[in-house]
C-alpha cells in the first residue's frame, strides 16, 4: 500500500534505517537527536529530515515526544513507514488538531520503501512523492465511513460538551487512519500520557482540563516523573518538578485515579480474560493481552485520554480475534534451569526476531513462569518489538492460534549470551543499583528483603527501588519496606526508572546495574550512564560489594557465543 496518511509538504534529505525506533527513550524531545545507544541512527539529528523507518517500536509515549518536536521545530520534515504505525502517527494527528500544524506521514509498500531508502533527497507534496529516479502517486488519506452510535455522533457534534467533542474528533480520525469500521465500548483505561516527557504533553492535558473534561470509565494513571508528594524535599528543581506535578494534577482533576504505576496489572482493578480495555504503556499492554487475556490495542499516549473521556475506542488490531493470531513460531532452546535473568534476556531477543508481528514462544513451559517472570518478559519484548502481544505456550489463552503463513525461527542459548553481553558493556565497578522497571511487585519486594537479610548496601553504592503506591503501602504493612530501608535502600513511589531524573537519580553515579531488560536498553540514552545487567540476586551482590560479576549467569556459562 502506498498512501498519504497525513497529508502535507516536505522537501528534505532522506534519513533511512531498516530498524524501528522508539521516540521515547530513543530521541531527545528538545533537540531531535537519537539517543538510543543501541540504534543504528545513534547521534543523528532528525530535525528537517524525511525519516524513513519500517515502523516505530517501544514506548507508547513516542507520540508525546513527536508532539513536542513538532511544536518546538525539531521534528522530522516527514515520516515514511512501510508497515502499519500508530504511535507517531497519532502524535502528528494531535499536533494538527490541538496546535494547528503538523508534518506529513506516508506509508509505502516494501518495494517503494526500499527504493526511497537509497535516495539522498526527496519531496512530498500532497499525493506526490518525488526522489532520484522515483515518482510515486500516493493514495489520498482515507475518507472511509465510520459507523458511529447515536452517542458517538452527539459527542462529535458537540452536544455533550467541548471536551468530548475534541476527543471524539481525534478518535474518529484515528479510527479512519487505522481502518476501523466502528468504535467499541471499553470498561477501563490506563493513561500513559501523565509522564512529563515534554511541555507539549502538559499543554495537551491542560487543553482538555480547562474545558472541564471528565473521564467516563474507571481510569488509572501510569508512573509520573516525580514523587508527587515529596519532590520538593528531594531537591528536584522547580523548573521540572512543578510542570511534572501539574501534569499529574491535570489528569487527576479530570477524574483519573492517582495510581501512578507502570504496572496496572498489580492493582485491584486488574482486568480479567475477555475484558475490553484501553491501556497505554507498552509493557502493560503486552502483559494484559498475553498473560491476562484481556483485549487492548497498544494505544499511543494522548489517544488514551481521548478514550477515557468518551469511553470509546477504535475497533482495530488485536481487538479483533483474527488479528491476535501469531505470525511467527519462536522455538527456544532453553536450558534445564534458569534464574530470573533469563526472562528479560529472552523477551528482548524475541522482540528483535519479531519486530513487526506477534510471535508464539515454545520450549519454555517446563519453567512454569510466575507473574514476575512474565512481567519481565513482556517489558523487554516491548522494548524491541512493535507488536502489542506475544503468545506464551501454556500461558496465553490464544497460544497456538497461528496465521496460515506463520514461519519459524529458533533461539539458541548463544543468542541470549549475546544479549547479556550487550547489556553488560559497562565497567564492573557499580555506583547505583536500579530495581523496578516495571515497578516492583510485592512478591519481588519480599524476595529482595530475603536476599538483603543480614546485609547492607556498600557505602558508596546507592540502591533504589521504584514501585507503585499500593505496593509500597503493602510493603510497609508487612515491615518489608522498613527492612529494605534499614539495609540502605531507598524506596520511591510514583516515578519509575524510565522517568526518573537527577537528583533522585544520583548525579555522581557513573555505572548502574539493573535486573530489568527494559531499563538496560533505555538507561544509556536516558541517563548517559554505563550499564550492567543481572538477576535480582546478582544485583544484590553488586549493591553490597560495589562490583558486578564479569561472568554471565551460570546457566549460560557453558554456552559458546
UniProtKB/TrEMBL annotation:
Recorded hits in InterPro entries, A to Z, give: AcnX, PMDh-L-like_dom, PMDh-S-like_dom
Which organism does this sequence originate in?
Halomonas saccharevitans
- Entry protein name: Predicted aconitase subunit 1
Higher taxonomy: Bacteria, Pseudomonadati, Pseudomonadota, Gammaproteobacteria, Oceanospirillales
What residues does the Phosphomevalonate dehydratase small subunit-like domain cover?
A: 21-106
One GO molecular function term? lyase activity
Q: Name one Pfam family in it.
A: AcnX
Give the keywords, sorted: Iron, Lyase
**Coiled-coil annotated residue ranges, if any:** none
* Phosphomevalonate dehydratase large subunit-like domain residues: 147-540
